[in-house]
Amino acid sequence: MALFKEAEFDLMYGGISQTGELLDTGVKENLIEKVHDIYTMVKELARPPLNYT
C-alpha cells in the first residue's frame, strides 16, 4: 500500500521552491486568496505582543 497517492511540488533550478510551497499551503488553508496571478492575505494572523523588557 502506497503512503502517498499524489504529490505536487514546484521544482526550480537548485531544488524545491519553498516559497511556492508556502503560498500553496496558505491558499489551501484559506489564509491567502489567489485570483489569477495575484495573492492576497485573507485575514491577519494572531500574534502575541512583543515584550522587550
Write the layout of secondary structure elements.
Elements: E1 11-12, E2 15-16, H1 18-28, E3 32-35, E4 38-41
Antiparallel strand pairs: 1-2, 3-4
Computed Rg? 16 Å
Number of helices: 1
Task: Write down the overall geometry.
Answer: extended
Our measurement of the CA-to-CA distance between the termini, rounded to an integer number of angstroms, reads 54 Å
Question: Low-confidence spans: pLDDT under 50, at least 5 residues?
Answer: none
The profile of the biggest β sheet is: 2 strands, antiparallel
SSE pattern, N- to C-terminal: EEHEE
Report mean pLDDT, rounded to a whole number: 79
- The computed structural class is alpha+beta
**Quantity of strands, as a count:** 4
Beta content comes to: 15-25%
For the biggest β-sheet, the strand order reads: 1-2
The residue fraction in helices comes out at 10-25%
Write up this protein.
Helix content is 21%, strand content 23%. With 53 residues, it is of the alpha+beta class. The protein has a domain at 12-41. A two-stranded antiparallel sheet has the order 1-2. A two-stranded antiparallel ribbon has the order 3-4. A hairpin with a 2-residue loop joins strand 3 and strand 4.
Properties at a glance:
extended; single chain; 1 helix; 53 residues; 23% strand; alpha+beta
TL;DR?
With 53 residues, the protein is of the alpha+beta class. The protein has one helix spanning 18-28, and strands at residues 11-12, 15-16, 32-35, 38-41.
